[in-house]
Amino acid sequence: MRFDDAYSGNVFIGASPHFEEAKAVLYGMPMDWTVSFRPGSRFGPTRIREASLVHEEYSHYLKRDLTEIRYFDAGDIPLAFGNPTKSLAQIGAFVGQVLEKGKFPLGMGGEHLVTWPVVQEMYKHYPDLAVIHIDAHADLRTDYEGEPLSHSTPLRKISERIGGQNVYQFGIRSMTKEEVMYTEEVGIHFYPFDVLAPLQACLPQLAGRPVYVTVDIDALDPAHAPGTGTPEPGGITTKEMLASIHAIAASQVKVVGADVVEVAPAYDPTEQTPVLAAKLIREMLLGFIKS
C-alpha cells in the first residue's frame, strides 16, 4: 500500500489526508476466512468508517479533539481473498512499514486472527511487549478442528511468542478446559467475566512498558453489540468498555498499538455495533496517542 496519497474511499471522521504529518495510521484488515460460526467481519472496517460520521471529533470524556493528534486513514489492506497464510503475511508486511515510519498502528478487523501478525511485528520493535486482551473468548486453542490458522488461536500464538506472563486477558467467559489449564501452565494473567476492576488493578504492574491493546467486540454482551460472529451472553456493558479504554489511557502504560476486531455488521440492523466500534476507535486515538 502507498502512504503518499489520501485514501480514496470512505475515511474515518477527522482523518488527515497527509501521511507524513500523522502520528497514527488507521487501517482495515478485512479478513474472515477462518471463522467458526458466522462470517461477515470482513465488512467491519468499511462500516465502522461510515458509522464514525455519527460522532463528534471531540471527546467530552477525554477533553480532546481529533484535530489535535493527526492520524491518517490508510484504508483496507488488499488481502488475498480466502487465503489466510498470504493474508496474514500481507498484514504483517503492512504493519511493519507503519512501524518503520514511526507511526502508531490502529487496526480494524476482521476476525481476531488478524491480531497475530500485528503482534509479531510489534514484538520485533518492542521485545518487552505486553498484550492486553479484552474478549469473550480466550482464543488460546492450538487449532480448531485440526486447523491451526483459526480465529480461536491468536492469543495462543501470541503467548508462545512473547511469553504467557506478558499476556493479560480480561472479560473471558467462554473457553475449553484445556485453555484454562494452559493459562495456569504459562502464567497468563487471566481475569474472567469482568474487565474494568481487574484491569485497573493490573495497570500499575505495566507502568512504563510498551503495551498492545486488542479488543474483540464480543467482549460486550450481545444486548450492546449484537453485530459479531460469535456472540456470547453475559458480557460487559458499553459503559464499562469505554471506562476500560479510558483507564488504560489514563495509566502510565505506553500503548504502542491497538485494534478492534470481530465487528460483523450484517447481524445488527440497528447498527449499534459499528457505531460503538467507531466510538471506541475515537477514544483509542484520543487516549492512546499522546501529544
From TrEMBL:
Instruction: Give a single Pfam family match.
Output: Arginase
Q: Which cofactor does it need?
A: Mn(2+)
Q: Which CDD domains match?
A: Agmatinase-like_2 (cd11593)
The record's gene field reads speB
Free-text comment on the cofactor: Binds 2 manganese ions per subunit.
* Protein name listed in UniProt: Agmatinase
Give EC number(s), comma-separated: 3.5.3.11
Tell me which InterPro entries the record gives: Agmatinase-rel, Ureohydrolase, Ureohydrolase_dom_sf, Ureohydrolase_Mn_BS
